[in-house]
Write a structure and sequence with these properties.
The complex is a heterodimer of chains A (280) and B (293).
Chain A: H1 2-35, H2 40-45, H3 58-65, H4 69-99, H5 106-114, H6 125-134, H7 141-165, H8 169-177, H9 182-193, H10 195-210, H11 214-219, H12 228-239, H13 244-274
Chain B: H1 8-36, E1 39-40, E2 48-49, H2 53-60, H3 62-95, H4 101-109, H5 116-126, H6 135-142, H7 156-185, H8 188-196, H9 201-229, H10 233-238, H11 250-260, H12 264-292
Antiparallel strand pairs in B: 1-2
Helix pairs in contact in B: 3-7, 3-9, 4-7, 7-9, 8-9, 9-12, 11-12
The chains are: A mainly alpha (280), B mainly alpha (293).
Amino acid sequence: MKYGCTQKLKKSLKGIIIFLVILIDAYPIFWLFTSSLKSPSEFVVNPSYSMPEGVYLKNYAKAWSQGNMGVYFRNSLVYTVIALVFIVILSITVGFALTKMEWKGRSLTSAYFMLGLMIPVTTSLIPLVKIYRSIHIINTGTCLILTYIVSGLSMSIFLTTSYMRALPNDMFEASVIDGCSIFSMMRYIVIPVMKNCIVTVVVLQFFYKWNDLLFSMTFISDKDLKTLQTGLLYFEDQFGTKDWGAIFASVSISVFPLLIVYMFLNKKVIEGMTSGAVKG
Amino acid sequence: MKSVLRNKKAIALFVLPSFILYTIFVIVPIGCTCIYALYSGTPGLNWKFVGLANCRKLLMDPKVKMAFIFTMKYVGMILFGQVGLGLLLALMFRFWIKRFNNLVRTITFFPIVLPLIAVGQLFRKIFEIQPNYGLFNSILANIGLTEYVEAWLGRPQTALICLVVMGLWNSIGFYAVIIYGGLLDISNDIIEAAQIDGARPIQLFKSILFPLLRPIIITCVVFSFTGSIKVFESIVALTKGGPGEATVSLAKLMYDTAFEAGNYGYGSAISMVIFVVCILGAYVIRRFDSKEV
Protein backbone atom coordinates (compact mmCIF):
# COMPACT_ATOMS: atom_id res chain seq x y z
CA MET A 1 0.00 0.00 0.00
CA LYS A 2 2.69 2.40 1.06
CA TYR A 3 4.74 1.46 -1.95
CA GLY A 4 1.94 2.48 -4.28
CA CYS A 5 1.65 5.78 -2.51
CA THR A 6 5.28 6.80 -2.99
CA GLN A 7 5.07 5.60 -6.56
CA LYS A 8 2.12 7.88 -7.14
CA LEU A 9 3.88 10.77 -5.46
CA LYS A 10 6.92 10.19 -7.63
CA LYS A 11 4.80 10.14 -10.75
CA SER A 12 3.04 13.39 -9.97
CA LEU A 13 6.35 15.01 -9.04
CA LYS A 14 7.71 14.00 -12.43
CA GLY A 15 4.60 15.43 -14.03
CA ILE A 16 5.05 18.73 -12.23
CA ILE A 17 8.69 19.02 -13.28
CA ILE A 18 7.86 18.26 -16.90
CA PHE A 19 5.05 20.78 -16.79
CA LEU A 20 7.40 23.41 -15.34
CA VAL A 21 9.96 22.81 -18.08
CA ILE A 22 7.33 23.26 -20.76
CA LEU A 23 5.94 26.31 -19.00
CA ILE A 24 9.35 27.97 -18.77
CA ASP A 25 10.03 27.28 -22.44
CA ALA A 26 6.68 28.24 -23.86
CA TYR A 27 5.31 30.92 -21.59
CA PRO A 28 7.62 33.82 -22.56
CA ILE A 29 6.67 33.31 -26.21
CA PHE A 30 2.99 33.13 -25.33
CA TRP A 31 3.42 36.29 -23.27
CA LEU A 32 5.12 37.99 -26.20
CA PHE A 33 2.20 37.33 -28.56
CA THR A 34 -0.49 38.23 -26.06
CA SER A 35 1.32 41.41 -25.07
CA SER A 36 1.61 42.47 -28.68
CA LEU A 37 -2.20 42.64 -28.76
CA LYS A 38 -2.56 44.93 -25.77
CA SER A 39 -3.53 48.57 -26.02
CA PRO A 40 -1.17 51.18 -24.48
CA SER A 41 -3.38 51.80 -21.46
CA GLU A 42 -3.49 48.10 -20.56
CA PHE A 43 0.24 48.09 -19.91
CA VAL A 44 -0.18 50.82 -17.34
CA VAL A 45 -3.36 49.64 -15.66
CA ASN A 46 -3.02 45.85 -15.62
CA PRO A 47 -0.10 43.78 -14.36
CA SER A 48 2.21 42.44 -17.06
CA TYR A 49 1.10 38.84 -16.83
CA SER A 50 -2.58 39.56 -17.46
CA MET A 51 -4.26 38.61 -20.71
CA PRO A 52 -5.14 41.27 -23.28
CA GLU A 53 -8.66 42.65 -23.01
CA GLY A 54 -9.19 42.84 -26.72
CA VAL A 55 -7.30 42.50 -29.96
CA TYR A 56 -5.44 45.73 -30.55
CA LEU A 57 -3.92 45.36 -33.99
CA LYS A 58 -2.76 48.97 -34.23
CA ASN A 59 0.54 47.85 -32.68
CA TYR A 60 1.27 45.80 -35.77
CA ALA A 61 0.25 48.56 -38.14
CA LYS A 62 2.54 50.93 -36.28
CA ALA A 63 5.48 48.54 -36.20
CA TRP A 64 5.05 47.68 -39.88
CA SER A 65 4.79 51.19 -41.30
CA GLN A 66 6.21 53.68 -38.81
CA GLY A 67 8.78 51.31 -37.37
CA ASN A 68 9.90 50.48 -40.90
CA MET A 69 9.49 46.78 -40.09
CA GLY A 70 8.04 46.17 -43.55
CA VAL A 71 11.23 47.37 -45.22
CA TYR A 72 13.47 45.51 -42.77
CA PHE A 73 11.45 42.37 -43.25
CA ARG A 74 11.82 42.53 -47.02
CA ASN A 75 15.56 43.21 -46.74
CA SER A 76 16.13 40.29 -44.41
CA LEU A 77 14.15 38.01 -46.67
CA VAL A 78 15.98 39.10 -49.83
CA TYR A 79 19.47 38.81 -48.30
CA THR A 80 18.73 35.49 -46.66
CA VAL A 81 17.14 33.87 -49.70
CA ILE A 82 19.85 34.96 -52.14
CA ALA A 83 22.58 33.83 -49.75
CA LEU A 84 20.84 30.49 -49.26
CA VAL A 85 20.58 29.83 -52.98
CA PHE A 86 24.30 30.40 -53.39
CA ILE A 87 25.22 28.40 -50.31
CA VAL A 88 23.23 25.41 -51.51
CA ILE A 89 24.68 25.50 -55.04
CA LEU A 90 28.24 26.03 -53.90
CA SER A 91 28.21 23.49 -51.09
CA ILE A 92 26.66 20.78 -53.25
CA THR A 93 29.08 21.22 -56.11
CA VAL A 94 32.06 21.38 -53.78
CA GLY A 95 30.78 18.46 -51.75
CA PHE A 96 30.38 16.38 -54.90
CA ALA A 97 33.80 17.27 -56.23
CA LEU A 98 35.42 16.54 -52.87
CA THR A 99 33.89 13.12 -52.40
CA LYS A 100 32.98 11.58 -55.75
CA MET A 101 35.35 13.07 -58.28
CA GLU A 102 38.97 12.14 -58.59
CA TRP A 103 41.70 14.72 -58.56
CA LYS A 104 44.96 15.62 -56.87
CA GLY A 105 44.81 17.73 -53.72
CA ARG A 106 41.33 16.60 -52.89
CA SER A 107 41.87 15.83 -49.23
CA LEU A 108 44.00 18.91 -48.76
CA THR A 109 41.25 21.12 -50.16
CA SER A 110 38.76 19.39 -47.93
CA ALA A 111 40.87 20.10 -44.85
CA TYR A 112 41.29 23.68 -46.02
CA PHE A 113 37.54 24.23 -46.12
CA MET A 114 37.15 22.68 -42.68
CA LEU A 115 39.49 25.30 -41.17
CA GLY A 116 36.56 27.69 -41.23
CA LEU A 117 34.70 25.63 -38.66
CA MET A 118 37.29 26.54 -36.04
CA ILE A 119 37.51 30.26 -36.66
CA PRO A 120 35.21 32.60 -34.77
CA VAL A 121 33.63 35.02 -37.28
CA THR A 122 34.27 37.90 -34.93
CA THR A 123 37.95 37.67 -35.78
CA SER A 124 37.49 38.48 -39.45
CA LEU A 125 35.15 41.41 -38.94
CA ILE A 126 37.63 44.30 -38.99
CA PRO A 127 39.53 43.21 -42.13
CA LEU A 128 36.23 42.53 -43.91
CA VAL A 129 35.13 46.12 -43.34
CA LYS A 130 38.39 47.29 -44.84
CA ILE A 131 38.16 44.96 -47.83
CA TYR A 132 34.58 46.00 -48.57
CA ARG A 133 35.47 49.65 -48.22
CA SER A 134 38.35 49.33 -50.66
CA ILE A 135 36.17 47.67 -53.31
CA HIS A 136 33.36 50.15 -52.59
CA ILE A 137 30.63 47.73 -51.68
CA ILE A 138 30.35 48.59 -48.00
CA ASN A 139 26.86 49.65 -46.99
CA THR A 140 25.23 47.70 -49.81
CA GLY A 141 23.21 44.52 -49.84
CA THR A 142 25.96 42.89 -51.90
CA CYS A 143 28.54 42.92 -49.15
CA LEU A 144 26.12 41.49 -46.65
CA ILE A 145 25.02 38.70 -48.98
CA LEU A 146 28.64 37.95 -49.80
CA THR A 147 29.48 37.69 -46.10
CA TYR A 148 26.49 35.48 -45.44
CA ILE A 149 27.55 33.14 -48.23
CA VAL A 150 31.17 32.77 -47.16
CA SER A 151 30.38 32.48 -43.46
CA GLY A 152 28.01 29.60 -44.21
CA LEU A 153 30.34 27.74 -46.57
CA SER A 154 32.45 25.69 -44.16
CA MET A 155 29.52 24.39 -42.18
CA SER A 156 27.49 23.55 -45.29
CA ILE A 157 30.37 21.86 -47.07
CA PHE A 158 30.97 19.85 -43.93
CA LEU A 159 27.37 18.68 -44.02
CA THR A 160 27.24 17.91 -47.74
CA THR A 161 30.56 16.02 -47.79
CA SER A 162 29.64 13.86 -44.82
CA TYR A 163 26.27 13.10 -46.41
CA MET A 164 27.71 12.33 -49.83
CA ARG A 165 30.48 10.16 -48.50
CA ALA A 166 27.81 7.76 -47.31
CA LEU A 167 26.25 7.44 -50.77
CA PRO A 168 27.40 4.44 -52.85
CA ASN A 169 29.69 5.21 -55.78
CA ASP A 170 27.93 2.64 -57.99
CA MET A 171 25.07 4.97 -58.61
CA PHE A 172 27.28 7.62 -60.17
CA GLU A 173 29.37 5.09 -62.08
CA ALA A 174 26.26 3.50 -63.51
CA SER A 175 25.05 6.84 -64.74
CA VAL A 176 28.40 7.42 -66.42
CA ILE A 177 28.07 4.10 -68.26
CA ASP A 178 24.62 5.15 -69.36
CA GLY A 179 26.23 8.15 -70.98
CA CYS A 180 25.41 10.82 -68.48
CA SER A 181 27.49 13.98 -68.69
CA ILE A 182 28.69 15.55 -65.48
CA PHE A 183 26.09 18.29 -65.62
CA SER A 184 23.13 16.07 -66.30
CA MET A 185 24.39 13.82 -63.50
CA MET A 186 24.24 16.84 -61.20
CA ARG A 187 20.77 17.69 -62.36
CA TYR A 188 19.18 14.23 -62.43
CA ILE A 189 21.04 12.24 -59.79
CA VAL A 190 22.97 14.34 -57.29
CA ILE A 191 20.33 16.93 -56.52
CA PRO A 192 17.45 14.46 -56.13
CA VAL A 193 19.37 12.14 -53.80
CA MET A 194 20.65 15.09 -51.78
CA LYS A 195 17.19 16.40 -51.01
CA ASN A 196 17.31 15.68 -47.28
CA CYS A 197 20.76 17.12 -46.93
CA ILE A 198 19.70 20.25 -48.80
CA VAL A 199 16.83 20.70 -46.37
CA THR A 200 19.20 20.45 -43.40
CA VAL A 201 21.60 22.95 -44.92
CA VAL A 202 18.82 25.36 -45.82
CA VAL A 203 17.18 25.20 -42.42
CA LEU A 204 20.39 25.61 -40.42
CA GLN A 205 21.67 28.42 -42.61
CA PHE A 206 18.30 30.11 -42.67
CA PHE A 207 18.35 30.34 -38.89
CA TYR A 208 21.93 31.62 -38.85
CA LYS A 209 21.39 34.26 -41.53
CA TRP A 210 17.98 35.39 -40.40
CA ASN A 211 19.34 35.88 -36.88
CA ASP A 212 22.57 37.63 -37.85
CA LEU A 213 23.25 40.88 -36.10
CA LEU A 214 27.00 41.40 -36.02
CA PHE A 215 27.50 41.65 -39.78
CA SER A 216 24.42 43.66 -40.65
CA MET A 217 25.04 46.13 -37.86
CA THR A 218 28.67 46.60 -38.87
CA PHE A 219 28.34 46.79 -42.64
CA ILE A 220 25.03 48.55 -43.16
CA SER A 221 24.34 52.10 -42.03
CA ASP A 222 21.71 53.06 -44.60
CA LYS A 223 18.29 52.93 -42.97
CA ASP A 224 16.59 51.45 -46.02
CA LEU A 225 19.04 48.58 -46.29
CA LYS A 226 18.97 47.41 -42.69
CA THR A 227 17.80 43.96 -41.70
CA LEU A 228 15.13 42.96 -39.25
CA GLN A 229 17.56 42.32 -36.41
CA THR A 230 19.28 45.69 -36.65
CA GLY A 231 15.89 47.30 -37.03
CA LEU A 232 14.70 45.64 -33.84
CA LEU A 233 17.77 46.82 -32.02
CA TYR A 234 17.15 50.46 -32.80
CA PHE A 235 13.42 50.21 -32.50
CA GLU A 236 13.50 51.18 -28.87
CA ASP A 237 15.64 54.24 -29.53
CA GLN A 238 13.12 55.35 -32.09
CA PHE A 239 9.91 54.70 -30.22
CA GLY A 240 11.15 55.18 -26.69
CA THR A 241 10.82 52.61 -23.96
CA LYS A 242 7.20 53.53 -23.29
CA ASP A 243 5.52 52.06 -26.34
CA TRP A 244 5.57 48.42 -25.28
CA GLY A 245 2.81 47.32 -27.61
CA ALA A 246 4.69 48.41 -30.72
CA ILE A 247 7.91 46.81 -29.46
CA PHE A 248 6.18 43.52 -28.78
CA ALA A 249 4.50 43.67 -32.17
CA SER A 250 7.79 44.26 -33.95
CA VAL A 251 9.47 41.42 -32.06
CA SER A 252 6.55 39.19 -32.98
CA ILE A 253 6.95 40.13 -36.64
CA SER A 254 10.54 38.94 -36.56
CA VAL A 255 9.53 35.73 -34.83
CA PHE A 256 6.57 34.66 -37.01
CA PRO A 257 8.53 33.44 -40.06
CA LEU A 258 10.71 31.31 -37.83
CA LEU A 259 7.68 29.90 -36.10
CA ILE A 260 6.21 28.91 -39.45
CA VAL A 261 9.44 27.44 -40.81
CA TYR A 262 9.89 25.58 -37.58
CA MET A 263 6.37 24.19 -37.52
CA PHE A 264 6.81 22.69 -40.96
CA LEU A 265 10.35 21.49 -40.58
CA ASN A 266 10.88 20.78 -36.89
CA LYS A 267 10.86 17.01 -37.44
CA LYS A 268 13.61 17.30 -40.01
CA VAL A 269 15.62 19.74 -37.90
CA ILE A 270 15.47 17.65 -34.76
CA GLU A 271 16.08 14.44 -36.71
CA GLY A 272 19.12 16.01 -38.30
CA MET A 273 20.36 17.06 -34.89
CA THR A 274 19.88 13.67 -33.24
CA SER A 275 21.04 11.56 -36.14
CA GLY A 276 24.56 12.80 -36.17
CA ALA A 277 24.99 15.86 -38.33
CA VAL A 278 26.63 17.68 -35.43
CA LYS A 279 27.96 14.80 -33.40
CA GLY A 280 31.29 15.03 -35.15
CA MET B 1 34.82 5.07 -68.10
CA LYS B 2 35.71 7.26 -65.18
CA SER B 3 36.78 10.15 -67.34
CA VAL B 4 33.53 11.91 -66.56
CA LEU B 5 34.44 11.91 -62.88
CA ARG B 6 37.92 13.20 -63.74
CA ASN B 7 36.67 16.03 -65.90
CA LYS B 8 39.10 18.81 -64.97
CA LYS B 9 36.91 21.60 -66.26
CA ALA B 10 33.96 20.42 -64.21
CA ILE B 11 36.09 20.09 -61.09
CA ALA B 12 37.40 23.59 -61.55
CA LEU B 13 33.91 24.89 -62.13
CA PHE B 14 32.62 23.12 -59.00
CA VAL B 15 35.42 23.96 -56.62
CA LEU B 16 37.06 27.20 -57.73
CA PRO B 17 34.25 29.70 -57.05
CA SER B 18 33.87 28.55 -53.45
CA PHE B 19 37.61 28.22 -53.06
CA ILE B 20 38.24 31.77 -54.20
CA LEU B 21 35.42 33.31 -52.17
CA TYR B 22 36.41 31.35 -49.10
CA THR B 23 40.06 32.31 -49.43
CA ILE B 24 39.43 36.01 -49.96
CA PHE B 25 36.71 36.52 -47.39
CA VAL B 26 37.50 33.98 -44.70
CA ILE B 27 41.16 33.02 -44.70
CA VAL B 28 42.74 36.29 -45.82
CA PRO B 29 40.87 38.35 -43.16
CA ILE B 30 42.21 36.10 -40.41
CA GLY B 31 45.74 36.76 -41.66
CA CYS B 32 44.93 40.47 -41.88
CA THR B 33 43.77 40.50 -38.28
CA CYS B 34 47.12 39.09 -37.16
CA ILE B 35 48.90 41.86 -39.07
CA TYR B 36 46.53 44.65 -38.02
CA ALA B 37 47.14 43.69 -34.41
CA LEU B 38 50.63 45.17 -34.83
CA TYR B 39 49.29 48.58 -35.86
CA SER B 40 47.38 51.33 -34.12
CA GLY B 41 44.77 53.84 -35.23
CA THR B 42 42.42 53.86 -38.21
CA PRO B 43 43.64 52.75 -41.66
CA GLY B 44 44.14 55.81 -43.85
CA LEU B 45 44.04 58.25 -40.96
CA ASN B 46 46.62 57.64 -38.28
CA TRP B 47 47.62 54.11 -39.18
CA LYS B 48 51.07 53.33 -37.85
CA PHE B 49 53.17 50.33 -37.05
CA VAL B 50 53.61 49.84 -33.33
CA GLY B 51 54.86 46.27 -33.23
CA LEU B 52 54.15 44.52 -29.97
CA ALA B 53 53.06 47.68 -28.18
CA ASN B 54 49.43 46.60 -28.55
CA CYS B 55 50.30 43.36 -26.84
CA ARG B 56 51.84 45.23 -23.89
CA LYS B 57 48.84 47.54 -23.79
CA LEU B 58 46.52 44.55 -23.70
CA LEU B 59 48.18 43.18 -20.61
CA MET B 60 48.00 46.51 -18.77
CA ASP B 61 44.55 47.63 -19.88
CA PRO B 62 42.02 47.40 -17.00
CA LYS B 63 39.15 47.35 -19.52
CA VAL B 64 40.54 44.26 -21.19
CA LYS B 65 41.03 42.66 -17.81
CA MET B 66 37.44 43.41 -16.82
CA ALA B 67 36.07 42.17 -20.13
CA PHE B 68 38.19 39.06 -19.87
CA ILE B 69 36.99 38.28 -16.34
CA PHE B 70 33.39 38.96 -17.31
CA THR B 71 33.67 36.74 -20.38
CA MET B 72 35.18 33.93 -18.34
CA LYS B 73 32.46 34.15 -15.70
CA TYR B 74 29.82 34.12 -18.39
CA VAL B 75 31.42 31.22 -20.23
CA GLY B 76 31.74 29.23 -17.01
CA MET B 77 28.12 29.66 -16.04
CA ILE B 78 26.78 29.07 -19.54
CA LEU B 79 28.96 26.01 -20.03
CA PHE B 80 27.82 24.49 -16.77
CA GLY B 81 24.19 25.33 -17.45
CA GLN B 82 24.04 24.26 -21.07
CA VAL B 83 25.78 20.95 -20.63
CA GLY B 84 24.51 20.15 -17.12
CA LEU B 85 20.89 21.16 -17.57
CA GLY B 86 20.94 19.93 -21.16
CA LEU B 87 21.97 16.52 -19.86
CA LEU B 88 19.20 16.54 -17.24
CA LEU B 89 16.62 17.48 -19.87
CA ALA B 90 17.87 14.76 -22.20
CA LEU B 91 17.60 12.18 -19.40
CA MET B 92 14.09 13.44 -18.77
CA PHE B 93 13.12 12.97 -22.42
CA ARG B 94 14.56 9.48 -22.38
CA PHE B 95 13.27 8.06 -19.10
CA TRP B 96 10.34 10.12 -17.89
CA ILE B 97 8.30 11.07 -20.87
CA LYS B 98 6.48 8.25 -22.59
CA ARG B 99 3.62 10.03 -24.30
CA PHE B 100 3.98 13.33 -26.19
CA ASN B 101 7.73 12.88 -26.31
CA ASN B 102 7.91 14.57 -29.71
CA LEU B 103 5.73 17.45 -28.65
CA VAL B 104 7.77 18.16 -25.53
CA ARG B 105 11.00 18.05 -27.50
CA THR B 106 9.57 20.33 -30.14
CA ILE B 107 8.61 22.90 -27.52
CA THR B 108 11.90 22.79 -25.64
CA PHE B 109 13.87 23.06 -28.86
CA PHE B 110 11.89 25.98 -30.18
CA PRO B 111 13.64 28.93 -28.44
CA ILE B 112 16.91 28.20 -30.24
CA VAL B 113 15.40 29.22 -33.56
CA LEU B 114 14.40 32.67 -32.30
CA PRO B 115 16.61 35.61 -33.20
CA LEU B 116 18.76 36.59 -30.21
CA ILE B 117 17.77 40.20 -30.65
CA ALA B 118 14.11 39.34 -30.38
CA VAL B 119 14.85 37.20 -27.34
CA GLY B 120 16.88 40.07 -25.90
CA GLN B 121 14.03 42.54 -26.37
CA LEU B 122 11.64 40.04 -24.84
CA PHE B 123 13.83 39.50 -21.79
CA ARG B 124 14.39 43.23 -21.39
CA LYS B 125 10.65 43.46 -20.97
CA ILE B 126 10.55 40.46 -18.65
CA PHE B 127 13.12 41.99 -16.30
CA GLU B 128 11.82 45.56 -16.69
CA ILE B 129 10.99 47.75 -13.70
CA GLN B 130 10.39 51.15 -15.36
CA PRO B 131 7.95 52.55 -16.50
CA ASN B 132 5.85 49.53 -15.47
CA TYR B 133 6.82 46.21 -13.96
CA GLY B 134 7.86 43.54 -16.41
CA LEU B 135 6.64 39.96 -16.29
CA PHE B 136 9.04 38.77 -13.61
CA ASN B 137 8.60 41.72 -11.28
CA SER B 138 4.84 41.74 -11.66
CA ILE B 139 4.66 38.06 -10.76
CA LEU B 140 6.91 38.68 -7.75
CA ALA B 141 4.71 41.56 -6.65
CA ASN B 142 1.60 39.47 -7.08
CA ILE B 143 2.74 36.55 -4.94
CA GLY B 144 3.71 38.94 -2.17
CA LEU B 145 7.47 39.07 -2.63
CA THR B 146 7.40 42.81 -3.17
CA GLU B 147 10.74 43.33 -1.42
CA TYR B 148 12.45 41.25 -4.10
CA VAL B 149 11.20 43.45 -6.92
CA GLU B 150 14.26 45.10 -8.33
CA ALA B 151 15.93 46.59 -11.36
CA TRP B 152 17.41 43.28 -12.47
CA LEU B 153 19.41 44.78 -15.31
CA GLY B 154 20.62 47.69 -13.20
CA ARG B 155 23.14 45.90 -11.00
CA PRO B 156 26.29 44.21 -12.27
CA GLN B 157 25.72 40.85 -10.54
CA THR B 158 22.08 40.50 -11.43
CA ALA B 159 22.71 41.74 -14.97
CA LEU B 160 25.17 38.88 -15.43
CA ILE B 161 22.60 36.43 -14.07
CA CYS B 162 19.96 37.84 -16.43
CA LEU B 163 22.31 37.32 -19.38
CA VAL B 164 22.99 33.75 -18.31
CA VAL B 165 19.28 33.03 -17.79
CA MET B 166 18.49 34.38 -21.23
CA GLY B 167 21.36 32.47 -22.83
CA LEU B 168 20.25 29.25 -21.21
CA TRP B 169 16.59 29.71 -22.03
CA ASN B 170 17.53 30.33 -25.62
CA SER B 171 19.96 27.46 -26.13
CA ILE B 172 19.27 24.66 -23.70
CA GLY B 173 16.96 22.76 -26.07
CA PHE B 174 19.74 22.45 -28.62
CA TYR B 175 22.06 20.71 -26.17
CA ALA B 176 19.25 18.60 -24.74
CA VAL B 177 18.39 17.33 -28.23
CA ILE B 178 22.00 16.52 -29.14
CA ILE B 179 22.55 14.62 -25.89
CA TYR B 180 19.20 12.90 -26.32
CA GLY B 181 20.43 11.71 -29.71
CA GLY B 182 23.37 10.16 -27.91
CA LEU B 183 21.09 8.51 -25.36
CA LEU B 184 19.07 6.94 -28.18
CA ASP B 185 22.24 5.28 -29.46
CA ILE B 186 22.66 3.43 -26.16
CA SER B 187 20.71 0.24 -26.59
CA ASN B 188 17.89 -0.61 -24.26
CA ASP B 189 19.47 -4.00 -23.49
CA ILE B 190 22.41 -2.44 -21.69
CA ILE B 191 20.18 -0.26 -19.58
CA GLU B 192 17.75 -3.09 -18.79
CA ALA B 193 20.59 -5.44 -17.92
CA ALA B 194 21.94 -2.90 -15.47
CA GLN B 195 18.51 -2.40 -13.98
CA ILE B 196 18.03 -6.14 -13.54
CA ASP B 197 21.39 -6.29 -11.81
CA GLY B 198 19.95 -3.82 -9.35
CA ALA B 199 21.67 -0.61 -10.40
CA ARG B 200 20.06 2.42 -8.84
CA PRO B 201 19.40 5.40 -11.15
CA ILE B 202 22.48 7.25 -9.95
CA GLN B 203 24.70 4.20 -10.39
CA LEU B 204 23.19 3.56 -13.79
CA PHE B 205 24.07 7.09 -14.81
CA LYS B 206 27.56 7.08 -13.33
CA SER B 207 28.84 3.76 -14.54
CA ILE B 208 26.87 3.19 -17.73
CA LEU B 209 25.30 6.25 -19.28
CA PHE B 210 27.97 8.84 -18.57
CA PRO B 211 30.93 6.85 -19.96
CA LEU B 212 28.94 6.06 -23.10
CA LEU B 213 27.78 9.65 -23.50
CA ARG B 214 31.23 11.04 -22.93
CA PRO B 215 32.14 11.82 -26.58
CA ILE B 216 28.89 13.70 -27.10
CA ILE B 217 29.26 15.60 -23.88
CA ILE B 218 32.74 16.64 -24.92
CA THR B 219 31.37 17.84 -28.27
CA CYS B 220 28.74 19.81 -26.40
CA VAL B 221 31.37 21.37 -24.15
CA VAL B 222 33.34 22.43 -27.23
CA PHE B 223 30.22 23.87 -28.89
CA SER B 224 29.20 25.65 -25.74
CA PHE B 225 32.66 27.05 -25.15
CA THR B 226 33.28 28.30 -28.68
CA GLY B 227 29.77 29.70 -28.83
CA SER B 228 29.84 31.58 -25.55
CA ILE B 229 33.40 32.91 -25.72
CA LYS B 230 32.40 35.28 -28.52
CA VAL B 231 29.23 36.45 -26.77
CA PHE B 232 28.13 39.68 -28.41
CA GLU B 233 24.57 39.64 -29.69
CA SER B 234 22.88 38.82 -26.40
CA ILE B 235 24.79 41.58 -24.63
CA VAL B 236 23.92 44.14 -27.28
CA ALA B 237 20.30 43.07 -27.10
CA LEU B 238 19.85 42.79 -23.36
CA THR B 239 22.20 45.06 -21.42
CA LYS B 240 24.13 47.06 -24.05
CA GLY B 241 27.18 46.42 -21.88
CA GLY B 242 25.68 48.16 -18.88
CA PRO B 243 25.26 48.99 -16.11
CA GLY B 244 28.37 51.07 -16.65
CA GLU B 245 30.73 48.65 -18.34
CA ALA B 246 29.95 45.71 -16.12
CA THR B 247 28.75 43.40 -18.86
CA VAL B 248 31.17 44.25 -21.67
CA SER B 249 32.54 41.01 -23.11
CA LEU B 250 35.73 40.68 -25.14
CA ALA B 251 33.78 40.66 -28.41
CA LYS B 252 31.80 43.73 -27.39
CA LEU B 253 35.01 45.48 -26.33
CA MET B 254 36.57 44.58 -29.68
CA TYR B 255 33.57 46.01 -31.51
CA ASP B 256 33.50 49.21 -29.46
CA THR B 257 37.25 49.73 -29.76
CA ALA B 258 37.31 49.22 -33.50
CA PHE B 259 34.04 50.73 -34.65
CA GLU B 260 33.01 53.18 -31.95
CA ALA B 261 36.43 54.48 -30.96
CA GLY B 262 37.99 53.92 -34.40
CA ASN B 263 41.06 52.12 -33.13
CA TYR B 264 41.17 49.25 -35.64
CA GLY B 265 44.66 48.12 -34.69
CA TYR B 266 43.94 47.70 -31.03
CA GLY B 267 40.54 46.19 -31.84
CA SER B 268 42.32 43.58 -33.95
CA ALA B 269 44.63 42.84 -31.06
CA ILE B 270 41.59 42.21 -28.85
CA SER B 271 40.03 39.96 -31.47
CA MET B 272 43.29 38.00 -31.54
CA VAL B 273 42.78 37.40 -27.82
CA ILE B 274 39.35 35.89 -28.59
CA PHE B 275 40.88 33.81 -31.36
CA VAL B 276 43.68 32.49 -29.17
CA VAL B 277 41.41 31.76 -26.20
CA CYS B 278 39.00 29.98 -28.54
CA ILE B 279 41.64 27.72 -30.12
CA LEU B 280 43.36 27.13 -26.77
CA GLY B 281 40.13 26.26 -25.02
CA ALA B 282 39.09 23.82 -27.73
CA TYR B 283 42.54 22.25 -27.57
CA VAL B 284 42.49 21.91 -23.78
CA ILE B 285 39.04 20.32 -23.83
CA ARG B 286 40.14 17.80 -26.46
CA ARG B 287 43.34 17.10 -24.54
CA PHE B 288 41.41 16.55 -21.36
CA ASP B 289 39.20 14.14 -23.26
CA SER B 290 41.93 11.91 -24.66
CA LYS B 291 43.89 11.81 -21.40
CA GLU B 292 41.07 10.49 -19.28
CA VAL B 293 40.01 7.75 -21.65
